[in-house]
């Protein structure tokens, strides 16, 4: 915290403090919780023992000032005010970032469209679609350089990828479909026993042949249960 922030925080008790007591309270406030030099009267007194301009070097004076002018309560109020101020600054910064520039969908789509237009211009004008390359064949005295023409698959790939990005930004081409079971949980599969008691003899014989064919074993599977 800077001096201005400390100066702005006086409170009702602070108005009656002597200049020496007020100076000590400001130093006490600057000893913010969580820092190496934690906020406490003992740490403040230890610092004052090394300071020739300290408002006091007396433990009794410090404790009396602290009690009379409610340093602990005022410091807690100050900390809350500081936290609220920092939170507001953070939120404002976050809002500014998230509501401007590429954080906005239409801005991102605009940039993607610019990229696509530049790529498509080359494609439309037949530029960089077929790329000439020099390639050496043979070796020694038989070596020679020939020119080959290669299809630029990368250009088409970038065109398609840019279109895909644009579609994703505007909500087109959903990439996957998620299925859920009861209550939004995973789908659960359960095996339901097959009742063979209601099958006729012919149906049982046909089922036995199917199971035997599917099992691939020498021994036929028993109807009504899996083979193996």
Describe this entry's structure for a reader.
- By secondary structure, the chain is mostly helical.
- It folds into three domains: 3-97, no CATH class; 105-169, no CATH class; 195-222, no CATH class.
- It is 53% helix and 7% strand.
- It contains nine helices and two strands.
- It has helices at 3-8, 11-14, 19-30, 41-48, 59-68, 71-98, 105-124, 153-169, 201-215; strands spanning 130-137, 144-151.
- Strands 1-2 form a two-stranded antiparallel sheet.
- α7 (105-124) packs antiparallel against α8 (153-169).
- It starts with a helix and ends in a 13-residue tail after the last helix.
- The model has no long low-confidence stretch (mean pLDDT 77).
Helical content stands at: 40-55%
| Count of distinct strands | 2
Mean pLDDT: 77
By secondary-structure content and strand pairing, the structural class works out as mainly alpha
Percentage beta strand: 5-15%
Distance between the termini: 77 Å
- Walk across the major sheet and give the strand order: 1-2
Overall tally of structural domains: 3
Low-pLDDT parts are none
List the helices and strands in order: HHHHHHHEEHH
Helical region count? 9
Rg from alpha-carbon coordinates: 40 Å
The major beta sheet can be summarized as: 2 strands, antiparallel
Shape: flat
């Amino acid at each position: 915290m800077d001096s201005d922030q400390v100066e702005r925080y006086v409170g009702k008790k602070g108005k009656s403090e002597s200049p020496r007591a007020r100076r000590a309270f400001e130093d006490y406030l600057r000893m913010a919780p969580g820092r190496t030099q934690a906020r406490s009267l003992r740490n403040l007194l230890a610092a004052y023992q090394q300071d020739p301009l300290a408002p006091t070097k007396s433990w009794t004076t410090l404790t009396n000032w602290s009690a009379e002018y409610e340093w602990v309560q005022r410091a807690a109020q100050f900390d809350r005010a500081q936290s609220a101020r920092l939170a507001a600054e953070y939120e404002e910064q976050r809002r500014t970032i998230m509501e401007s520039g590429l954080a906005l969908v239409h801005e991102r789509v605009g940039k993607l469209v610019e990229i696509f237009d530049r790529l498509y211009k080359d494609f439309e004008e037949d530029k960089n679609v077929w790329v000439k390359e020099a390639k050496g064949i043979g070796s020694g005295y038989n070596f020679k350089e020939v020119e080959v023409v290669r299809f630029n698959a990368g250009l088409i790939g970038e065109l398609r990828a840019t279109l895909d990005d644009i579609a994703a930004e505007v909500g087109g081409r959903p990439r996957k479909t998620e299925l859920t079971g009861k209550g939004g949980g995973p789908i659960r599969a359960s095996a339901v026993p097959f009742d063979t008691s209601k099958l006729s003899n012919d149906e049982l014989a046909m089922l036995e042949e199917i199971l035997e064919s599917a099992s691939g074993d020498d021994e036929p599977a028993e109807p009504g249960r899996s083979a193996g």
